């Protein structure tokens, strides 16, 4: 069941990072030069936090 939680979180975080990146670009009025790097940093930061929460609240199988 833990794998399902991580997979669901990964999908949600991917979509959220994409939405946040598009929102930031809209606010800036331009496409970022290092768009891929910004996306990676957003996704990695959110993943580290959410995966730590999942590990804290879900008992290992």
Describe the structure.
The protein has 61 residues and is mainly alpha-helical. The protein has one domain. Helices cover 82% and strands 0% of the residues. It is built from two helices and no strands. The chain is elongated and about 45 Å long. The protein starts with a helix and ends with a helix. 2% of the residues are buried.
| Fraction of helical residues | over 70%
Query: H/E order of the elements?
Result: HH
Give the count of structural domains. 1
Q: How is the main sheet built?
A: none
Low-pLDDT runs? none
Give the integer mean of the pLDDT values: 93
Question: Cα-atom Rg, whole angstroms?
Answer: 14 Å
Number of strands: 0
**What is the first-to-last residue Cα distance?**
8 Å
Report the principal-axis shape.
elongated
Helix/strand/pairing category: mainly alpha
The share of residues in extended strands comes to under 5%
Number of helices: 2
List the defining traits of the structure above.
single chain, 61 residues, mainly alpha, 2 helices, elongated
Task: Please give a quick description of this structure.
This protein has 61 residues and is an all-alpha fold. The protein has 2 helices and no strands. It has one domain.
Give me the secondary-structure topology.
Elements: H1 2-28, H2 35-57
């Amino acid at each position: 069941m833990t794998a399902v939680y991580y997979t669901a979180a990964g999908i949600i975080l991917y979509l959220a990072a994409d939405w946040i990146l598009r929102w930031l670009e809209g606010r800036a009025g331009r496409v970022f030069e290092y768009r891929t790097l910004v996306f990676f940093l957003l996704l990695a930061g959110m993943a580290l936090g959410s995966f730590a929460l999942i590990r804290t609240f879900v008992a290992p199988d």
